[in-house]
Amino acid sequence: MLKIENLSIYSEDKKILNNINLDFENGKIYLIFGPNGSGKTTLSKAILNDINYRKEGRIILNDIDITNMKTEEIAKYIYYSFQNPIEIENIKTRTILMNILKNYNEENIKKIGQELGLPDNFLDRGINHNLSGGEKKRLSLLLSILLNRDVIIFDEIDSGSDIEFMEKLKYYINKLKNEGKIIIIISHNMKFIKDINIDVVMILLNGEIKYIGSKEIINKIEEHGFSIF
Amino acid sequence: MDSQYFKDLFRKYYDKEFDRYNIIENIYNTENININPGNNIYINKFYINSENLNIIINNQNKAILYNEFIVNKNVNINFLLDNNKEIYIYNLYNIYSNINSKFDEKIYNKNKAVIISRIYIPHNSENSDARLNQIVYDENGISILLPILDVFNKKSRGFHGSKTLKLNNKEIEYLNYLSLSKEDIKNILIKEFLKI
């Protein structure tokens, strides 16, 4: 279980996030939805303690206070899939995986990579290096499958993706949910959102949570916009 | 060759201390060579007998190395320097005719390294292609790389490229998100780098 208690983030005098209280239960899919600049990515980065701004409140994961843990420590429990993954030329993907996976099984990794549509030699390349935008998303999904973290945050993983990948994405998100993971999706893509079995929608507007509830709200927002809040 | 020769070769980087050094000459003709220099000046001549020539220099002393590679066959030379003290290296790649060869110099530097790497293709060496790539990973070290391309035959080509191995903040942040600390990243980089 992941709990966010009274979380506020301040940039000088301005509050970027205002008194956020959220509970995430295992085996559920959450959607954090809101317009650009509403604080969605800031919230994700705050969970991983990757914020240079002043922070108040607490973040608890499985009864452990992770609020001030180092990002690399939190990342042992939470996988954050970047909206725009960084390319690193100088370290091979294989080397990174061998260092972060408890059980490195190259055959299995290649098999899933192939199924997701990654190039045959992706392990021999630098991580994300010379991969197309779609291939980077595939690698992100592969990492979310292999890393076996308690919480997975998909930040716009669906943006610019093709139909084939979207199908795989839906399949694996459900699979990860069924394994008891907490899945947090950040997305603007209405079609993708409607296709996923989202359990809880959280609406974030100007750094404040305005709604926590069922997926029905998405239809209302589609019809009337965020002015309903 | 005497110490004056090396004084002219390294010019402002030459240390007076080297005047007292012994000059030691070696000839190598095997595929894998490990060198641990002492406080000396070394004149090393390398003959090519296979497709690859792997040289690992682990330096714990202040030394000068003059390395001449007789490239009369196609070869990939992998040159790895693990430098812990001051080292002054002159690598001369002497290219013959009809050669297509690649020279990778990797320098893991924790002290001071002055490296002059010269591709020399004389007038009578036709239709040759020689490529020198240098990668430096500096760990609180000073690396001075001075590449020289001397291509005297119009039908031959020489190429030089160099880069520094360093991760930027965005790359480190990305790896932190994969649960790797700065120390982990450094160790991985070095381990990867020290492979030949």
From TrEMBL, chain A:
<keyword id="KW-0067">ATP-binding</keyword>
<dbReference type="GO" id="GO:0005524">
    <property type="term" value="F:ATP binding"/>
</dbReference>
<dbReference type="GO" id="GO:0016887">
    <property type="term" value="F:ATP hydrolysis activity"/>
</dbReference>
<protein>
    <submittedName>
        <fullName>Fe-S cluster assembly ATPase SufC</fullName>
    </submittedName>
</protein>
<feature type="domain" description="ABC transporter">
    <location>
        <begin position="2"/>
        <end position="228"/>
    </location>
</feature>
<keyword id="KW-1003">Cell membrane</keyword>
<dbReference type="GO" id="GO:0043190">
    <property type="term" value="C:ATP-binding cassette (ABC) transporter complex"/>
</dbReference>
<dbReference type="InterPro" id="IPR003439">
    <property type="entry name" value="ABC_transporter-like_ATP-bd"/>
</dbReference>
<keyword id="KW-0547">Nucleotide-binding</keyword>
<keyword id="KW-0813">Transport</keyword>
<dbReference type="GO" id="GO:0042626">
    <property type="term" value="F:ATPase-coupled transmembrane transporter activity"/>
</dbReference>
<dbReference type="InterPro" id="IPR017871">
    <property type="entry name" value="ABC_transporter-like_CS"/>
</dbReference>
<dbReference type="InterPro" id="IPR027417">
    <property type="entry name" value="P-loop_NTPase"/>
</dbReference>
<keyword id="KW-1278">Translocase</keyword>
<dbReference type="InterPro" id="IPR003593">
    <property type="entry name" value="AAA+_ATPase"/>
</dbReference>
<dbReference type="InterPro" id="IPR050095">
    <property type="entry name" value="ECF_ABC_transporter_ATP-bd"/>
</dbReference>
<keyword id="KW-0472">Membrane</keyword>
<dbReference type="Pfam" id="PF00005">
    <property type="entry name" value="ABC_tran"/>
</dbReference>
UniProtKB/TrEMBL annotation, chain B:
<dbReference type="InterPro" id="IPR037284">
    <property type="entry name" value="SUF_FeS_clus_asmbl_SufBD_sf"/>
</dbReference>
<protein>
    <submittedName>
        <fullName>Uncharacterized protein</fullName>
    </submittedName>
</protein>
